[in-house]
Specification:
Strand content: 15-25%
Helix content: 25-40%
Bound molecules: tricarbonodiimidic diamide
Order of helices and strands: EEEHHHHEHEEEHEHEHEH
Shape: globular
Largest sheet: 6 strands, parallel
Length: 221
């Protein structure tokens, strides 16, 4: 398979060694009334990508390819949330505090769930991650190795935070990564644009970019 129109140059991959990595498409980040909006963020750009993420997910499901979802959340006792993370953001709403959808970013609370339209199917992998990068303190690398994955198509939120961190971690570990530009979003559109630009600058210093249509058109079915 090859995505000819990928930037900065064509992205070649084998279907058996390519996984879709969907980052943190969770209610608390995306839905009106969630944690993200309660901090004063406009969730509209995140809501707008849901159809494109669905199309990408459907393409991988239809071709029976490896699909991995991540969720950013913490244990109820916050033992996996360092003060350097908990003390960021608004003092009025910290990770673990009561929020509009249960305790904020706590595993098992409604806000930590992946949004209903993108709910993982039983055979799909779900990685629960305490950091911004999906490799930090998770089983992701072992999962990729056991599935012989070498190439990642990445999508999700937010572009400059968890998506970019994960792509940099993956690149350092030897994975070839492509970001789906219309299936990722930020609360700050200018940050999304800059992140896309910096990922594919310098000959693809972090990876490649392509649109969902370009990716899906490269899949066999
Ligand atoms: N998933 C993810 O990006 N977590 C964040 O906290 N992002 C923000 O942009 N705040």
């Amino acid at each position: 398979m090859i995505i000819d129109d990928a930037q900065p140059f064509p992205f070649a991959f084998e279907e058996d060694s390519c996984a879709l990595l969907l980052i943190d498409m969770q209610r608390d980040f995306i839905e009106p009334g969630g944690f993200g909006e309660s901090l004063g963020n406009d969730v509209t750009p995140l809501l707008e990508i849901v159809p494109a993420v669905s199309t990408l997910l459907d393409g991988f499901r239809y071709n029976n390819l490896c699909i991995i979802h991540t969720r950013e959340c913490h244990q109820p006792d916050l033992s996996d949330c360092p003060p350097s993370k908990r003390h960021r953001g608004s003092p009025a709403r910290r990770i673990g505090d009561p929020g509009p959808m249960g305790r904020i970013l706590i595993d098992g609370e409604p806000g930590a769930d992946i949004i209903a339209p993108l709910a993982p199917l039983p055979d799909e992998i779900v990685i629960t991650k305490p950091g911004k990068g999906a490799f930090y303190n998770t089983e992701l690398e072992a999962v990729l190795q056991s599935n012989a994955i070498s190439h990642l198509i990445v999508a999700g939120v937010t572009t400059e935070v968890c998506v970019q961190s994960t792509m940099r971690e993956a690149n350092d570990r030897g994975y070839d990564c492509l970001l789906a530009t219309d299936a990722t979003a930020s609360y700050f559109p200018e940050f999304k644009k800059s992140t896309i630009d910096m990922i594919r600058a310098q000959g693809g210093i972090v990876g490649w970019t392509a649109t969902v249509d370009q990716i899906v058109n490269a899949l066999p079915l």
